[in-house]
Amino acid sequence: MTPPIPSLDTRRSAGFDPTVQPILPGTPLPSLPPECLQLDYIRQAFTHAVDWQVDPLFAQAFLPGGAAYAQARQAAVLMPLIQRDQGLRVLFTRRAAHLHDHAGQISFPGGRIEASDPDPVAAAIRETREEIGVERQFVHVIGVQPALLTTTHFLMTPVVGELLPGFHIVADQAEVAEVFEVPLEVLMDPAQHCLHQLQTAWGHGRCYFSIRWQSYFIWGATAILVRNFYHFLAASAGLSGVPRD
């Protein structure tokens, strides 16, 4: 049987509901030790080389080179970690329903890299300020993860950062419908990562990851970035993850 083609296209087409597509079975991955979910551990993990790989199902989307990469629109997102009394949280946005791309979907703050941005880190920080009002002095960059080529032709660099105490959220309502937080322990639990399969009108099988929390459905490119962060932390802890078939 030909395996389904990974899909990173998070545009919701007419009549397609990503929340109800069939879930594929997979080999369980190991749980992370509790210390991996601590801010000090994550900071330390980025200070030395970690031998890890992106999720094998989507590895092709992370390979550099080729015409698709050269022609892709450069973008960057911030994966904001927030220390709360109950543990680390990750901040997400829900995009405004009227937007042309990815309307109503859950994402990290970020967007296109502009000519004035010296690098993807600067772009992610600028976009975070523009979208949700968090000023530069409240963002402490921890590290950068591999860039992802989406099927919407964005080469998206994820930047992991900590939001320092004292930050304030002022969402740009033209772009952002909602800002919310999800516990890191939920996102880093591989049992919460569901692999869906869908069948397109052309008969090509495609698949995507999703993570549910309360009423939120995180899927597509955002979910694979979360999945990769799990792989990174698992490798830093010396765990041997077993990829899905």
> How many helix segments?
5
Low-confidence spans: 1-12
So, the CATH homologous superfamily of the domain at 31-49 and 58-183? Nucleoside Triphosphate Pyrophosphohydrolase
Element-by-element helix/strand order: EEHHEEEEHEEEEHEEEH
Shape: globular
Q: In which range does the helix fraction lie?
A: 10-25%
Topology:
Elements (H helix, E strand, L loop, with lengths): L4 E2 L16 E2 L14 H7 L21 H5 L1 E12 L2 E9 L10 E2 L2 E3 L7 H13 L6 E6 L3 E2 L4 E10 L12 E8 H4 L6 E6 L5 E9 L2 E4 H17 L9
Parallel strand pairs: 1-12, 3-9
Antiparallel strand pairs: 2-11, 3-4, 3-6, 4-5, 4-10, 7-9, 8-9, 11-12, 12-13
Provide the descriptors you would attach to this structure in a database record:
single chain, five-stranded mixed sheet, 245 residues, alpha+beta, 13 strands, Nucleoside Triphosphate Pyrophosphohydrolase, disordered N terminus
Descriptive notes:
The protein is an alpha+beta fold and 245 residues long. It has a domain at 31-49 and 58-183: Nucleoside Triphosphate Pyrophosphohydrolase, CATH 3.90.79.10. 19% of the residues lie in helices and 31% in strands. It is built from five helices and 13 strands. Strands 3, 4, 5, 6, 7, 8, 9 and 10 form an eight-stranded mixed beta sheet that branches. Strands 1, 2, 11, 12 and 13 form a five-stranded mixed beta sheet that branches. The longest helix has 17 residues, at 220-236.
